[in-house]
Specification:
The protein is α/β, with parallel strands linked by helices and 240 residues long. The chain is built from nine helices and eight strands. The chain has a single domain, classed as Glycoside hydrolase/deacetylase (TIM Barrel, Alpha-Beta Barrel). α2 runs parallel beside α8, α5 packs across α6 and α7 packs parallel to α8.
Amino acid sequence: MNALSKITVWRIAIVFAFLGAAGLGLREVVNSSSFQLFGDYVVSVETTERVVALTFDDGPSPWHTPKVLNELDRHHVRATFFMMGRNVERYPDIARDVLRRGHEIGNHSYSHPKLVLMSPRQVRDEIERTDKLLRDIGVSGEIHFRAPHQTKFIVLPYVLVKMGKLNVMGDVSADEWRQQPAAAMTQSILRNVRPGAIIGMHDPAGAESLLTLQSILPALIAQGYRFETVSELLRRRGKS
């Protein structure tokens, strides 16, 4: 291989390395739970008070949501449930029970797709369709949104800006998708929680998630934490 060919090969290698790094960076932006290119979003709220918002995604579930609700009732904790529209459609009585027990309900899209791969019209339909279902079961006031899979890039923030909606993310997660035992999820949450945190869990995630909930509630209460809905926590923005 002559000198010119070596230079060409190195240039090609550098270009591919740059594209690979750019691709990884783009993936981090798309999937990040703590960053969005534009539009209004929240990860946590700055406050010195020991308050947190506990959130649950993907419900309602006729098998798991009632167990979560009973555990929250036991500790007098109010939470925010980001529901999928198709599940509200299937189990409206469970969704109404969440509302009846004093919890907040948010929008987690209709079918839980990766919205980053969809057109603005499709994204808007996913959100509006779910908003209507939530209104039909009695949800009033502002309905906050949480992106499924945490994926967003250009289209979703654009649609949310047009709709005047906030994307509620979070800074503490049980990461149930890793299928860890309850002890590991509990330790992770308790290690990372701080005043103003938004804790993310899933009500249809099963036994280990319920055990985690049963562990973190008394532990956080013992540490002096109080639980607020997302809307209540958001009222603290800019007040610290």
